[in-house]
Amino acid sequence: VLVNNAGIVRDRMFANTSEEEFDAVTAVHLKGHFATMKHAAAYWRAKSKAGESVDARIINTSSGAGLQGSVGQANYSAAKAGIAALTLVAAAEMGRYGVSVNAIAPSARTRMTETVFADMMSTQDKDFDAMAPENISPLVVWLGSVESRDVTGRMFEVEGGKIRVAEGWAHGPETDKGAKWDPVELGPVVTELLAKARPPVPVYGA
Question: Which of 48, 60, 98, 124 is deepest in the core (most CB within 10 A)?
Answer without folding.
Answer: 60
